[in-house]
Fold:
Amino acid sequence: MTAARRPLIAGNWKMNGLTADGLALARSLAAAPEGVAELLVCPPATLLAPVASALSGSRVALGGQDCHAEEAGAHTGDISAGMLADAGCSHVITGHSERRANHGETDAVVRAKAAAAHRAGLVAIVCVGETEAERDAGEAEAVVAASLLGSLPAGARPGNTVVAYEPVWAIGTGRTPTVDDVVAVHAALRAALGDRGEAMRILYGGSVKPDNAAALLAPYDVDGALVGGASLSAADFLAIAGAA
Ligand code: PGA
Structure:
């Protein structure tokens, strides 16, 4: 980890939480003492406003879980990047594998969403990951590198983009790649990024828990974590942050 790449621990709450749960979680995180890692939470859209006020003045940043590629218009149920910024967000996740699988998002769609995030002044967290079949076929590094290059808009740079490597088969399953496998993929992604690679943060995501965080976060090429299930517990999320 270089000084230029401060670790980022991002919590993706997914479709979990009503106001009372979200506020309680946000208040616990807001009370966390200063630490090495930058902290970010991405609640469901309905909780953005109350969580924004609970986190106000704290070290924890706010992000959306997805955005539309356009700024406004007839897109029922969608949220624009500008709306996220207006709600207090500094970041947005784009191309999470659940969006890719459940909503048919291709690399081109993800690229357009990340570009919209940049136009709105948000940092895009661009997710890529291989399926289990692709890993078994020895294609993990090639698949994620190609997906990343297809998902990054032209203006992507270290200041407005974070990459998240999330093997599809590791998300929510309790299974993780070996640390060596994570390092190999992160190195391939960094190489694919070319000149931008050294300064751009690359997170690992997929079943990160307090008991595996230190090992997964230790390598030079791992700049933090995108945490799903464990981010719903303040104690677990802060324990993961403490391992960074
Ligand atoms: P998980 O989810 O930590 O529950 O595996 C990670 C993610 O989807 O970002």
